[in-house]
Fold these 4 entries.
Entry 1:
Amino acid sequence: MDRRTFLTATGAGVLATGCPGLVLARASTDARLVVVLLRGALDGLAAVPPVGDPDYQRQRGPLAIPVSGSAGSALPLNTDFALHPALTGLHAAYKQQQLLVLHATATAYRARSHFAGQDWLETAVGDPQDGWLNRALAVLPGAITGEQGIALSSRVPLVLRGDTPVTSWAPSRLPEVDADTLDRIAMLYADDPVLSVRLAEARNADQLAGAMDGTGPVFGPQSFARLAEAAGRFLVAPDGPRVAVLETTGWDTHANQGAAQGQLANRLTGLDQGLSALRSSLGSSWRDTVVVIATEFGRTVAVNGSRGTDHGTASCALLLGGAVQGGRVLGEWPGLSAGSLYQGRDLRPTTDLRALLKGVLQAHLLIDAGALETRVFPDSRQVRPLQGLIRG
Amino acid sequence: MDIAKDQVIAANRFGLGARPGELAAIGADARGWLLDQLDGPSSPPAAVRNLPSSAQVLAEFQAVRGARRPGAADPAARDKGQQIRGVLGPAYRDQVFARYRAAAATAQPFRERLVHFWTNHFAVSADKPPVTGLAGGLENEAIRPRVTGNFADLLLAVERHPSMLLYLDNQASIGPNSRLASRAARFRRGDRKLDINENFGREILELHTLGVDGGYTQADVIGLATALTGWSVGGGQGRLRAGTPGEFEFRAAVHEPGTRRVLGKSYSQGGVDQGEAILRDLARHPATARFIATKLVRHFVADDPSPAAVAAVAKAYQASDGDLTATYTALVSVPEAWRDELTKWKTPHDYLISGLRALNAGPQRPRDVVGALMLMGQPAYRPGSPAGWPDRAPDWAGADGLMKRIEWATAVGARAGSGVDSVALGQAVLGSAFGDHSKTWISRAESRSQALALLLASPEFQRR
């Protein structure tokens, strides 16, 4: 009996310990969460163009995506919004009601530094010590064995860093180290509190990864799909983690951004393909999965002098997965008229990104509301979790 | 001879990791050994001296990119992208190889670490063409000759370097009322408007000088970016052809005329002088002194710098008007720097170099370093963002990163371990930091190859 089956079977016992939230515990240990960080500030107006906004074509000029009539036209979501033509997989998911869009969202950060912005995205506080996802793992209900979080990268991103043990994995080109040498290194590390823990985490991850083939690109543009595919395999492993973090870069399109085609379109294609690979490798666990796709901030509404966009404020965030109550675009649309822009230049944020994240953690991972507003997202009582994000 | 703590700290934390014999050669005055390395003019290490200049690489890149598309009759040359990679790829590889050969061999490892420090402070990333072939040029041409000079000169040289200008897209930032923009408006075709892009101005304020909390506003970003319109690179085609291909070129026709305001001060200078004046004031700003002092202390002393140490280094910077040798002298004098060994976690870059130095061996082939660094998560000259690589242990001490080091250590052990006495080698390069626990386990290894792998994987060798 694997861990998840076991916990499902003893749900009543958990209930007796006084966690009423676990009445619906069928999903509590089956639930999978993937967080995809888009570093560099995704242009939300390119990914989810507000084609119904009367100011859209004029404000975006050469970056506007044709609404209809050509091969490169936007993929409609509803009368007001569409998806970038590169996002065909996401569009299919939307039609299956497995993609939910939140537009005009931002973190609480209002300046325009990538690096401070990413710290906010990952920690939800101004003082980057540990990540909100690591803090969420610390209050995950249910019995825990092994690391519940994995980063698909050589370096653990800040969002997953903190006191709760997590692991990380990335493909290698070097030969595997033999077990005897690893055992000896474990002895060598016995007195070192950091290295002994890290080595154990890495060995667990390698064990889980054992079945993975050694082919496919380790680096380069196709590597995201490979990592996404690997993330799915970790998440379906019986003793594997339940939460995975993926990151991609290259969204900082200051010059020659392109519209239906071009630099940003190529990035979006890579993202779309990676998400499809994740879905495939999750298999039947897809129905229990939520993928959160978010970026540190948006980009200027107007095109800059080098056919790109500069750092802005609000962008979009996406929820994808079989557990998502999708097929909808959420958020109050602030409009693109000159007077409605934030500081006269950016898409105005109307929803705090934490509302989305809290809504997911509460309904999907069943994290207690009190812990959410004090520990996971400190001082966030006034930011109400979005409701109805997850299928009942 | 038992090597004392001072020598271990000087060689392994301030330097690049001891080579065999280095700890003993430092002598009693470890601080003096460091400061002596700052004396005198810079002579570039042999490994980097013969690299082609950035201007040469860029001229070649421009020639390939600008060439008329070859006819179908020439199938070998049809793929322009491939030709461009054929210029930039080898340039990158040669620069990386030279960088790590120099680092493995240098007898001035403190000075060399400072060069690397500034390259990371003024980060460009080789994943963006044509910067791929120019990243090493920024280090060797702009930074290396000024590493012990004045910060303002270093700053100006970096911001004028084609690598930085192209990385932050400044060649495409155009004053909306510049001569070029006015001319374009008269003959307007299409809907492209000519205007600035903020990237260069923002990153200079946030990452190169004041720091993100340095007290600047969005208006200052725009003011600086506007003042720097026209800072560009020579070459180009047609009417835009100007200057020497690949060299800094101030394009007056693109510069926004008029007075700019930055941090409450007006700059009425014309042309290139306007941007230079602002940069010189930024170099002198107390926030810059604090920002640079914090980064130096974090890099050389501890992840979380003490306010006293930062204040001492910032004070030396300000008192000397940005003299870097005076600043480093204060850094080396911070008492807590000498209290404990092994306070810093090595980055993969540190780890690789210290491994090569311990083995007294340069890398044999470019792919030995390019591949190893990529695998360990820190590809050479490729931080992926203008913020550079992070400099604290939690950024690097993850599970997968550790396993990749162990894989590398095992591969090196298999290749180079046969003739090595790893306990003696550990004693020679780690000195007083080499613990009995590690000695015991290394001495019990089943083979010399495994013993070397254990030494390179040991807790002491992961830190500096």
Entry 2:
Amino acid sequence: MKKLDSTILQALNPSDYFTLAMDDEIRRENMPGSLCGFALNLDKEPDIETLQARIIEFGERFPVAYASLQQQGKRFFWCQREQNIPLFSQHKEGATQSADFHKETVLDLINQKQAREDISPISFHLISSANKHTFLLRWVHPFCDARGVDLIFKFLCTNDADQRLKFNLPELGSLVNLHLEKYKWWQKIALFFQAKRYITKLDQLPSIIHADTTQTPKQLNFTNFTLTDEQTTRINTNVRKHVGMTGTSLYYIGCFMRALHRMDPTQKGEAYCAPYAFSLRKNKSLSPVLANHVGALFAQVPKALLNDRSALFQHLKNENMQVIRKKLDYAFLPVMWAASWLSLEKHGKELRKSYASGTERSSFWFSDIGKTDVSEMVFFDSKINSIFHLCQITSPPALAFLSCQFNKRLTFSYNFIEPLFHAQWIDQLHDLMLEELLME
Amino acid sequence: MMRVPKLNHDFLYFYVCTHLLPSHTRKVLMKQKIRDFIFDELIFVAEPEKFSDDDDLLEAGLDSMGIMRLIMFIEEQFAVTLPDSEIDPDNVNSFNALEAWVIQHKS
């Protein structure tokens, strides 16, 4: 058994293994692992001195930010490094101006290949050219999840030192374990089998995958679209009309499935399947900041339902209601706990991929971040013009749709692996997506 | 053969709430149970005791997934069916609104 050569700061919790298994899959494709990004486009250079001081404070408060992820046996730990890697770096455009210095730098950072032990769990980057400033927070799953990143931003933007002390209090530990503690051992076993039955049922229908998997993954690329106020209002009205106030994410998922289907209705497979994570944190809670505290669920729609919009949304809604009624969301937790003791390869096979065939279950990855907490904020004296999200993806599906609402406008980030997908294809897909979203 | 209901805490609570207590007390208990569920499971409020029955739950962080869970919880706990078509901000944006909505559907 491999022995750790440095001090353990923190062990991973069961939800972290779920994202680490994704990291492992991505790395096996010779890609950089599960790197994610959250970027702000700013109207001017922020107050760098204060920003840097706040980032240093963040590192002191959360030392795992400097840690190295190391394995001992089947378990993984955040371990102390001999020397801390600086958390903040600046990237300035040189004399020779490139067409899109900002996008190229973001892509370089998100596609940077480093050994798992060497990579910085989180890093903050300010990309500056004469008229443009982008602030990128890059993190690696399993350091934290999207809600955690929202909290980190909130921490950085909180000017009152006393208020900053409230982050991560109370110290809650693993929310998967906390939720599991509510159940007796026989209830956990019952939940475990309930989740297994749920997975088996999903796997009866092979998923439709659009990526051309005969080609080798090259690198992640992304395209962002910010909708207008009018488009956003119309879409929000449609959400209420078609899925009600409880189904915003389901509306995006349904529209995205239909848009994909319209791109190529002859695509092999019997159903579209999209995973979506739900946070175990209470809303508005400032704790826990680090690690992953999510459960996983899937939305699945058989091909036959895609031609009828109302039937499709009704199906997604019923499916989601059944999941909550049968408590399948929590049923996944014991499976996640149990799978955290497996090898990463087996973990992915058991939870993420189709169990029987070992093929990809997800037609695409999906995340609806919702209204972001940075919405109303000015970032270190600089106004935030727009935001976008990034995430590395396994291939297949090689495609992720990330949505959020910022400043009352919807922003969609399409993340895709080239050359399995290309920018023109994504543009066409977005046009169809927009049609679907705006359809009365 | 007569079916004997399973006696557990939920059943006792439900029985006491629906049969033995005066109507006003039943309402207070129902509201308290909904409060506990929301603050224990769905949203974080630093001082829940200061959160009034008219304060805005949506502003406080009750989101679509939370509303779904809340409705399932209410339906299970108080043997009531809340129609999908009535899931509306006006019915879920405060404890008082929730109470009125639930009572409207209780026979």
Entry 3:
Amino acid sequence: MILVCGIPTESPVARVIDALSDASAPMAVLNQRHFDDIELEYDIGGGGRLTGLLRIARLRWTLDEIQGVYVRLMDDRQLPELAAEPAGSTRRIACRSLHQALLAFCDVTPAKVLNRTGPMSTNASKPYQAQVIARHGFSIPETLITNSPDHVRDFVAEHKRVVYKSISGVRSIVETVTAQDLARLDQIRWCPVQFQAYVPGVDIRVHTVGEEVFATEITSTATDYRYATQQVDVAAGLEALDLDDGTAGRCVALAEDLGLPLAGIDLKRSEQGEVFCFEVNPSPAFSYFEAHTGQPIAAAIASYLAS
Amino acid sequence: MSHPGDACAPWAWAGLRARGLPMEIVTAEELVFSTSARHRLGRASVESDFVLPSGRRLAFDQLQGTLNRLAIVPENHLSRAGPSDRIYAVQELHALFTSVLYGLPGRVLNRAGPRGLCGPWLSPAEWMAQAGRAGLPIEPYLVRGGAPIPDLVLPAERVVYVVGDAVVIVPSHPGEPPAAIAEGCRALALGCGVELLGVDFAALSHGPWTFVGASPMPDLRPGGEALLDALLAAMVG
């Protein structure tokens, strides 16, 4: 049985459910919004062996029936069902505890999991990830993280066009450093900021599912194609791309090294043909790319989990 | 690298200096309050250098080894920021420290990673599962969604330190553990990707060497001279 955890109407989750359904794979959907009607109980015994039970509404499974898990949870503390609950209420605590038990289960189960909680945190430090990325033969952009305005001025003078963005798991919009930004550099003394040499070229998003690779070429003049409409008034164009074997192999090896059987890898092919890698997303919203290119990513996820 | 209240840092500093190893203590606060922090990544290398509040420059490429006992990022200086700015800044600082401490040259006990600044901080369930898979005897550990996740609360009666290939038993609890226990501790450290691990045992239903917990940042002081010798060997080896 394949367990799908998340909110079933959310696009990537919905596509995985559809793909598993198309493949006639036995499946259970754990809708985290229905936490009141879910029970999970397990025991870790000798040899680290896991035994236990999952109940969703009237259906029950033993945990050894679960051969694969797709997990894409929103922060359970922000669930709409808890909006009216006071802090520390019994229902809030029970919901939190269920999600903690579920995440711990994902880390200890011998089943295939896309993705386990531990490896998901590799994306919480982009420069850490960059060091791993570089070991896999990808170029990484020249990067400076500093709280010193002088170092930033030197870096901008060296690289001319420079962008800045967050380095943690907090999402940020990539922006080009402007004269106005340079005038407010003193603010970085409170918290170091990441600056990167801008790499001109073509953005490529690669999704890896096990050893399967799906590459999408993105056409946009925006600094951050995810916000192309905001930045340049024109939406980004997306097209399926055949990636060369060498780059595809490095993507698979990188995802495997990070412990991520499912990954969304952000590449850029420079004007000189050099392949840069910016980051690896452990919970990719692949549905956006699948919808635009027709690439069977959800089907690959279903096949990986069911095989 | 340590926190100001960490008594293990001056203990290790004094013990390792007495064994001829040049040592310096740098605190998390000194790093966070650096007047100039610079972390560069590129084609060629990883470079970090910080000018500490005292004016001392810390060039990380000159470090030969590090005993890393940083667990969290200090955030007192952000107390006047709004909640969302403070949360953002702490996450950014944590991300920076993870990268700096991961990229340290030489031998590092323990190197930072995505699950912790001085090695992985696993959930109790993961420690129990990993310990069981490493061949260590464990008590059944029950998790029940809806109820609080049980913690590993039993006080340790025996501690085994894994330092690289060496295994050190707390002197105040003499008695060699069975070879399988020492091997299991090594396997647990290897599985967690750490060079330094404190593994706690208590006498329970599986005998005197029943696993009750582990930490990548154990209290070092009970390890005494034998642990200092092992740390020295690991640092210069």
Entry 4:
Amino acid sequence: MEPALLAARHNQEAQRWRPAGQRLRALVPTSWHLALTACVLAEASALTGFLWLLATTLAAVVVAPHMPSASIFIALALLALTRAGLLYLREKVASQLGLRLTHQLRQTLTRRAMDPAWRQRRAEGSGQLATRLGEQLDLLQPYYANYLPAVYAAVIQPLLILVVVFSQNWLAGALLLFAAPMIPLFMAIIGMGVATLAEQQQQQLARLGDHFLDRLRALPLLRLSGAVERAVEEVGSATDQWRQAAMRVLRVAFLSSAVLEFFASVAIASVAIYVGMALLGFLTWGPAASITASAALVILLLAPEYFAPLRNLGQHYHDRGAALAAMADLMPLLDDTRIEPDIGAAPVASRWDQPPAVSLHNLTLRAPGREASPEGPILREAIELSVAPGEWLTITGPSGAGKSTLAALLAGFRDAGDAVQLNGIPMRTLPPATLRANLAWLDQQPRLSAGSLRSNIAPGDLPPGPLHDLLSECALDAVVAALPDGLDTRLGEDGAGLSGGERQRVALARALLPRPSLLILDEPTASLDDDTEAAILRALRARAGDTTIILFAHSTQAADAADRHIALSDLGHPPGGEP
Amino acid sequence: MTRRAHPTDRTSHWRFLFSLDAGHRLWSLAAVALALLAAGAAVALVASAGWLITASALAGLAAAAGAAITLEIFAPGAAIRGFAVLRTVSRYGERLLAHEAIFRIMARLRQTLFARVAARPFEALLAQRRASTQTRLMQDVQALENVHAGLLLPTLSAVIATLGLALVAGLLAGPAFALLISLLLATLALTCTAWARLQRQRHLRHALHRQRNRRDLLHLLDSHRELHFADPDDRQLQRWLRREADDALAQHHLHQRAALGEALLQLALGTTLLIALWLASRLLLAGHPSAPQLALLLIGLLALGGLWAGLARAWQQLPFTHAAIRRLLPTPDVPDTPNAPLGRAERSEPRDTTWTLHQVTLRRGIATRPLLQNQDLTLHPGDVLHLTGPSGQGKSSIASLLCGLLPAESGQITFMGQPLETLPEAERLARIALMPQDAPLLSATLRDNLRLANPQVDDRTLCEALNAVGLGYLLPDTDPETGLDTWVGLNGRALSGGETRRIALIRTLLQRSDAVILDEPWRGLDATTRARAAAWVREQQHGRTLIILDHEVRERQEGDREFGL
């Protein structure tokens, strides 16, 4: 987000950003706080020491020309080396902190995002989620690596320098001390003005800023409407207008850094002139009489370093805003902690030796809602269904009537209370690991990775035996034979290199490999040609008997191939209606 | 696998970067001038203060020993104050001018990029809509936009300020000092560029890995349901997490190397200071007349550190800039679409707009069910055809086929008496108005959205159209035409799917075309609204051929034809 837009959002978002800021700070362990403080303190000390020694040596040389002793040069060299080394160390510590925290958050959130129940609650597309876990989390890293050390430096270094300057000449110290609070005060005043100004511009800034991406997204439509030439011109003019609006804000925003420069430069100039006058003997009151050349040079060399951390902080202030915005967005994800316990803690899953009987008792089917209200309107009520062990049931119905929702309930992706039972036991009470080991799922979209065919069919542990039987079951023999490296052929991104029908058969093989006892399929053959559909139905027929199969489809072949078929409209009754 | 970049590649990239501010070079030059002024003022402020203090110290000591004070302090004092103000003002001006220059560069860059992307083949445009592509595009654009202010300008000011100091050193203290500072300049410049060059491969490799990890993450998240059962021990997740940890570690190493570069810069400056101190002492011992001048040089040298800070890190970003340029601009040997339709083709005299399909076979992908098999179809001007089939079966592909946006597997389509593919795309799309299934809303006024395909439509027609399709409530009762100024889409009033579709419907029908194809226009509409909208469509038909794609035949009229998939 650009600085202008960030400034514009600041007033509105302050409410949201405060808890985000607290969370960002809370994530840092105390030991890291201490380590960072120590690094910054050491670096500031090395810098101060170096400058102090340089100033005193230079003063001595100027007053009475001589060659400084070798030990002084060695001491200076050591101090310079130490300072460079500490700079390196501080960067290392800060960067490690940032990366570690970001990595931990990414780990936690990705684990949660792989849990179907959590995903069902969040109702967010995987593309957007991937952006959140990727780019948005990345925005937190500069906060820790750049902004946080800058804050520490802005507190510690000026204090240290102030102490040293006071020890040399208290009036000069007082001058610096006076300049210090002036700067944040003026910057805050200007900042408030900027925020108000930016707020007025906010809508325009947002619209113009998003214009480029918006038109880029709409390019197919623009081509169809013959509006491309106009759009090209508009992109240029929108960016120009954005420039004008942004400059209106930035003109004032830059004043705050100008204030910093002004006070810093004027302070240095005043200190220099004061010290010069004192050395000449034009000033005699206060500590002026006792000033020496070396003290004067020390003060001069340290004065710019007094203001430098504040300038540095200003440069990294933008990182703070971006991180706050990102964290505010991520906090709802972080706070939703209701998932199953970590796999490490799970007991060894037990495999069922018999396919289960599936029964539904008084199930209420609700449509999935948006993120604000995860439950939508009721589609059907009082659903009763019994599937015998090893039976193949096909449920038919038009799209949008609730087939996918029912499939999700049967697979345990959504909580159905006690309504869904396996062998008479509510699904909810069965150990999650057992369910994972014994169920399988297939839907209309076969999602394959870019890895080898083998790794797609067996994403978990490699099976002890060969895959031949499975491949012929799923009519994949010919496919594998036609591939250059057989099973080890790498598929392209999204399983390219295979046709739609072939990809679905691979997905079926993946689902059937662990020999599941219960198979839930959500319209797996909807966009396939007749031959592929027949092959898949044949594979299912071979498994029926050992596996309870519940297939959702709308084709007559799928209905005929099953042991039993029932229409969704025959299950339960619409809300409030008569059965 | 990282491609070894051609040296000519990089020179052309630099040329491109420098060409970005053509047309408003004045702003860039002004920004450079102010940057130099600010840098110079910063060094001069501290250096002259050093001169003043040293001179005052010596004069004070001499006065204490009895000599008269001949030091003129007021002019130097004024100069110091002058430098202080100059520094503030020129720094403010530099930031303003730099941003003015950058924003102008941005406008030009975005316009150029947009035009290039818009000229790509239609299928490439559809691929553009993937979120990951857009994110990368914006990152690349921002990387380019940052090069001038983040890298080129600060480097230039630092280099020229150092040269300036070397010159002054030569004048005040002789060739040895000037040589020292020039050597420093060479070391600093070398450290920045050579260090960056050393890390290049690592940076690019890391960027590649990170991209792959993000892609894998998307795949994991996409297939989480299947993997929930097919991978009960979460092996895929574990593997991804391990790769992610490696990626984080690699990034940490890159940061550390950047920090090392910075530390080296500081070390170079520190070493030079020590040598300068030694040199100054030698010169004073050898009888150099002015100690304050030497103090000025030394303190000026110290101030240079502030100008060079952060440059090592900035130069490390250069490989990404080159990569961004390479991605954003196509290589010269890949031609853009020959029929790059940037403008609305002028419609020549309306001709006989008979549409014929002759033995056309169309498949969506290999080995999927063919949508059309050796199909013959003739549409006479003014015909209304209802094309029906279940969702997701490929009706939209047939719409694309009829517009010539999708090639048939076999057979031929003729429109207006000639094969469809011989008509230039611009003319095809001008004569055949297509309402796609997912027409987005532009972030613009309602009026601009409605007039997209036909900018000449007047407000009254637009208001009538909105009322006819049941969207009259979007307009205020008094003076409805002001309602057309409402901003809709992103950053404006959000409209529902049904509302968006009706706006697309109006947009399509108001286009002055010879034929109209509507892809699922009634989705999300209740029966009454649908009837009204259908009536309006017939009203606006004006004798054009009309094709409606839908699940089932709705709003049928006498004489309509039907075709089921």
